[in-house]
Design a protein that fits this description.
This protein has helices at 9-18, 30-38, 91-97, and strands at residues 3-6, 53-56, 61-63, 69-78, 83-89, 100-101, 106-108, 121-126, 131-133, 138-146. It is an alpha+beta fold. The two termini are 31 Å apart.
Length: 170
């Protein structure tokens, strides 16, 4: 069965300290990063009928229409074979502010949890209008989706070795 988990503090700290600020509140103090890490909520569905699991902001952030902001969620996911996690912005934020994920739709492969970055899910966000999200606000949703393969399927390799963008190509 699929499950969400928090990545290690070290992975979250490294992601926070290595990102471009891009309008978000970035921290130099390890104690402040630790506080945000300790408060990370696992994604959850809002209702029984919700398809998506809402991701919560791990810290407050300001978004503007000039510079994309990368948000380290502090979350990873273990998925069942034959499924992937599709990440999309919450529709209300898209409608109100033109918020979108920089790569349109995030596809988290079933083997991403074994990546060197512990399967840490990050979202690079662009927007048409400036807005602010507070710590704990819902900003993105993940939908677990089945996928199928063709009969003559022959993957290039059988095992993932890296994190984001590691399976090759552009």
């Amino acid at each position: 069965m699929a499950e969400f988990y928090k990545v290690s503090f070290e992975q979250f700290r490294k992601a926070c300290q290595s990102l471009e600020s891009a309008g978000a509140l970035w921290f130099a103090e390890e104690a402040e990063i630790r506080k945000y890490y300790d408060d990370i909520k696992l994604p959850q569905r809002a209702t029984d009928g919700s398809a998506g699991y809402d991701f919560h902001m791990p810290f407050p952030a300001l978004f503007n229409s000039v510079i994309p902001a990368t948000i380290p969620s502090g979350i990873g996911v273990r998925l069942d074979h034959g499924t992937f996690l599709m990440c999309v912005p919450r529709s209300g934020l898209g409608f109100k502010y033109g918020m979108q994920l920089r790569n349109s739709v995030g596809v988290i492969d079933e083997d991403y949890s074994s990546a060197e970055n512990e399967g840490h899910i990050m979202a690079k966000i662009t927007t048409q209008e400036a807005f602010k999200l507070d710590k704990g606000d819902r900003f993105m949703q993940g939908i677990i989706v089945p996928y199928f393969t063709v009969e003559n399927d022959e993957p290039i390799t059988s095992k993932r070795t890296g994190g984001f963008g590691s399976t090759g190509g552009n």
